From TrEMBL:
<keyword id="KW-0808">Transferase</keyword>
<dbReference type="Pfam" id="PF01066">
    <property type="entry name" value="CDP-OH_P_transf"/>
</dbReference>
<dbReference type="InterPro" id="IPR000462">
    <property type="entry name" value="CDP-OH_P_trans"/>
</dbReference>
<feature type="transmembrane region" description="Helical">
    <location>
        <begin position="115"/>
        <end position="138"/>
    </location>
</feature>
<dbReference type="GO" id="GO:0016020">
    <property type="term" value="C:membrane"/>
</dbReference>
<dbReference type="GO" id="GO:0016780">
    <property type="term" value="F:phosphotransferase activity, for other substituted phosphate groups"/>
</dbReference>
<dbReference type="GO" id="GO:0008654">
    <property type="term" value="P:phospholipid biosynthetic process"/>
</dbReference>
<feature type="transmembrane region" description="Helical">
    <location>
        <begin position="150"/>
        <end position="166"/>
    </location>
</feature>
<keyword id="KW-1133">Transmembrane helix</keyword>
<keyword id="KW-0472">Membrane</keyword>
<protein>
    <submittedName>
        <fullName>CDP-alcohol phosphatidyltransferase</fullName>
    </submittedName>
</protein>
<dbReference type="InterPro" id="IPR043130">
    <property type="entry name" value="CDP-OH_PTrfase_TM_dom"/>
</dbReference>
<feature type="transmembrane region" description="Helical">
    <location>
        <begin position="21"/>
        <end position="49"/>
    </location>
</feature>
<feature type="transmembrane region" description="Helical">
    <location>
        <begin position="55"/>
        <end position="76"/>
    </location>
</feature>
<keyword id="KW-0812">Transmembrane</keyword>
């Protein structure tokens, strides 16, 4: 199934000059990973603290930066001899923590079911867990969609644009979340099948 993740090679190509510059400056993949995680935590916490829809505009901007940082840390690790066991842990933990932090602002929306937000976060964690578990059965880490990390970022980024412009759309977010949860289940099945 189609996934935003399939655009990653072209995105990496655009970021390669910046990545090479960072490597020359002594920036490490692990530093980039930790920075991306801290940026996500700070953004999610700030929006929740402000309790205002106008700050949802931060989501698409930060999600784009986070995607760029995720691509950069991977290229630094692979192309500049920076692979490490700690980096593998930081990469997976950073994704889960960042996703959770950036989804937290959905809890402040009065029209949105907190149960659905919680279920979406839970499914996001499970999807990534299933992807990582492939290595336990002798396969590579799995990234299939249709609701992987990049796809979740796209959904949340679009919500960050739509909600401040049309607050009334908040009443439809429950349906968006239900669809995303269903697609997360499909993603889990796709990743398990690919690994077996």
């Amino acid at each position: 199934m189609i996934s935003v993740y399939q655009l990653k090679p072209k995105f990496q190509q655009l970021l390669r000059p910046l990545t090479n510059g960072l490597a020359k400056a002594g920036v490490t993949a692990n530093q980039v990973t930790v920075f991306a995680m801290l940026l996500s935590i700070a953004t999610g916490a700030f929006i929740v603290w402000q309790q205002s829809l106008v700050w949802f505009y931060l989501l698409p901007a930060v999600l784009f930066v986070r995607m760029a940082l995720n691509a950069i840390d991977g290229m630094l690790a692979r192309e500049h001899n920076q692979k490490s066991k700690l980096g593998a842990y930081l990469n997976e933990l950073g994704d889960v923590v960042s996703d959770t932090a950036l989804f937290l602002p959905l809890f402040i929306l009065p029209q949105v079911s907190p149960w659905l937000v919680g279920a979406f976060i839970f499914m996001a964690i499970l999807v990534e867990f299933v992807g990582v578990m492939a290595s336990m059965v002798g396969k590579q880490r799995q990234y299939q969609g249709p609701m992987g990390k990049s796809d979740r970022a796209l959904v949340l980024g679009l919500l960050g644009i739509v909600l401040p412009l049309w607050p009334a759309m908040g009443s439809y977010i429950n349906y968006v979340l239900m669809g995303a949860i269903a697609l997360s289940v499909v993603t889990m099945i796709n990743r398990i099948r690919a690994a077996l």
